[in-house]
Amino acid sequence: MKKTLLIAACLLLASDVWAGGRDYVSIVGSSTVYPFATTVAERFGKTSSFKTPKIESTGSGGGMKLFCAGTGIDSPDITNASRRIKKSEYDTCLKNGVKEIVEVKVGYDGIVLANSKKATRFNLSKRDIYLALARIVPDPKGSNGFIENPYTNWKEVNASLPDIKIEVMGPPPTSGTRDAFDELAMQGGCKTFPWVKALKKSDKKKFKTVCEALREDGAYIEAGENDNLIIQKLEANPNALGIFGFSYLDQNADKIQGAIVDGVAPDFDKISDGSYSISRSLYMYVKKSHAEVVPGLKEFLAEFSSDRAWGDEGYLSEKGLIPMPEEERAQVGKTVKELIPLQL
Amino acid sequence: MYIRTQMGHQDKKTTTKASATERVQLGLAKRRRKEERFRKLSFAAVLLSIGFLVLLFASIISNGWPAFQRTDILLDVHFDQKVLDVNSLVNANYGKLVKQAMRDVFPEVTSRRDKRELYRLVSSGASYELQKMVTADPTLIGKTVSLWLPADDLTDMLMKGKIDRSLPEAERPISNKQIQWIDQLIAQKRLKKNFNTTFFQAGDSREPELSGIKGALTGSLFTLLVTLVLSFPVAVAAAIYLEEFAPKNKWTDLVEVNINNLAAVPSIVFGLLGLAVFLNFFGMPRSSPLVGGMVLSLMTLPTIIIASRASLKAVPPSIREAALGVGASKMQTVFHHVIPLAMPGMMTGTIIGLSQALGETAPLLMIGMVAFIVDVPGSVTDPATVLPVQIFLWADSPERAFVERTSAAILVLLMFLISMNGVAIYLRRKFERRW
Hints:
By secondary structure, chain A is an alpha/beta fold. Chain A has helices at about 1-20, 35-45, 60-65, 85-95, 125-135, 155, 175-190, 195-200, 205-210, 225-235, 245-250, 270, 295-305, 305-310, 315-320, 325-340, and strands at about 25-30, 55, 80, 100-115, 125, 135-140, 145-150, 170, 220, 240-245, 255-260, 260, 280-285. Chain A folds into 2 domains: about 20-110 and about 280-340, D-Maltodextrin-Binding Protein, domain 2 (3-Layer(aba) Sandwich), CATH 3.40.190; about 110-280, Periplasmic binding protein-like II (D-Maltodextrin-Binding Protein, domain 2, 3-Layer(aba) Sandwich), CATH 3.40.190. In chain A, strands 1, 2, 3, 4, 8, 9, 10, 11 and 13 form a 9-stranded mixed beta sheet that branches. In chain A, strands 5-12 form a two-stranded parallel ribbon. In chain A, helix 2 (about 35-45) links the parallel strand 1 (about 25-30) and strand 2. The longest helix of chain A is centred in the first third of the chain and has 18 residues, at about 1-20. The termini of chain A are far apart. By secondary structure, chain B is mainly alpha-helical. Chain B folds into 2 domains: about 70-195, no CATH class; about 215-430, Orthogonal Bundle (MetI-like fold). Chain B has helices at about 1-15, 15-65, 95-105, 110-120, 125-135, 155-160, 175-185, 200, 215-245, 250-260, 265-280, 290-315, 315-325, 330-360, 360-365, 385-395, 400-430, and strands at about 70-80, 145-150, 190-195, 370. A 3-stranded antiparallel beta sheet of chain B has the order 2-1-3. The two termini of chain B are about 35 Å apart. Strand 2 of chain A pairs antiparallel with strand 4 (about 370) of chain B, so a sheet runs across the interface.
């Protein structure tokens, strides 16, 4: 009898609370933006009178799916993404009634290839990266055809590279880091072959499979979303390279070193000014319709876009976010303030 | 068996009796050797598993132990009237007070760049602490108080020897100047390692020195409470019906087979079910211990049913017959005589089911309990996370200081589990009857 009462009380309490709406901001999305979003959320919760926003790390794609599932209090207010929203995702959003989406560019993140400090630092070009990791590569004999990737050693890829077996640990296809790596590093290297670049115009599908499919013979190891694990493995195996976001390199600079890509080493300034080429923008997408309904949403956005957060010397830069130039910040700041919806 | 065939063999060959004994004795030595080998191998297996267990515990404890201490800095904070406006204490710049106090300790630091580096030695949490103090007691304004405030996680790591001082400056997260200041602070007895109370009093945080386990612990408690309240009565009722009242036919056999199968279903499946039914259909709040507990009770139900049925079966039929013999009804027999005897077994089963639920993360992933949640949950509908999820989240954080906190959280989870199993053993010992 007592227990029945308890259950009834629990259910009553529960129904009462969730009918009343939500008094905290709900955020989903990319695991790359997660460390930055959580930092802002925590400061916001501790210094304002609002509750601390709840943040789930679902990956960019998973976040979009939840975000676009509909409007209403049980759907998230914000989704983070380590790439721009895709047209297909935007259309799904519209179809489900999520009409006005505000795009907020947050800053930049570099993707680094790093190895243990015990080994020599790699000096790679994007072409080297492509040739070492693609599933099929242009025939080295010179004919305009493709063969299964025959390289097993970095020296075979480029004579100036060390005599080490190719072994690279990186993110799985569900990760935004992987999307960006495929697009920036792999495609970038691919395009250094002029006749492959021409393929982009004539046969886009073939171009994509040629350039973005990673090899599956064990040279590229999908190491899951846990970047700390990759760092531990790199320490144990000085011959391996790992692929992850710049913030992890920044925090572990005593254990690992970032490879030089196309002559530029990955560091804060080089990513910020755009000279380090494998870098991407990070985004937040906000439902405009929730701004009036969910308490604290506007204020949270204001905190995120304040100079003390995303500014040159803001607390996010200490966490490894690479700030946008001042003009761009002002421009995005205006979008945030006026909640100007995105048009695709 | 072996001996007999040997003997039979001998009979056919009509060998002498003496040589037969000899052969048996020869075989005996071989058999002894075999036994000896098997014994050694199984002993080695036990040693190996104990070795792994010791290794696991040693690494977790040695990694996690330092997390129970935290470095604090002694600062003389002047609660400046100019900074603290009585009318808007919430919005005042408390960071300024901390910075001023740091400058007072190191008056020789003047350049802007150096000052920024100096301020980094103190945690950003120091200003929250001041804010809390002033809000609680506004009479502090205008006074100067000596306070132990949290140091930054990098200062903490250096104090604990986790940052190698001998490395070149560029490869260290902490600069030469900062090390020099830290050494000065140590010399002035302004740096001290204290017991880390924050770890047990705070929720999650992005700053390792401010993060705590209380949010996850409370979340786990709420989730287990919901699981217990839902699964125990239902499972026990199901077990009693199946064992005492249900007719034995194909239908009940089918139910039994299904319950046994359910116990073996991977837990993520229950998470998917929870997502589809509780969240999408009933519209219950995402990330709440209520939904988490409901999903986990689906998972623990079969475990508890199976354990309860086993303990009901173990009650000897003579008890039932005696009760029925003195005129008790079926219901009275079950409730007055059988259940009290079966209760210890049922409770043990329940606790084992709950400890299994305590360690689950997979089903909770689907219903949004894998999330960054700072506020300690106050009810079963507040967003919450649980201990194993907290461990996962910390293990995934880039800051180095989270490594020790991950291990410390594992220790807390293990303590929780051990105490739950302890309760199970105690209950069994206390109430168990033997015939």
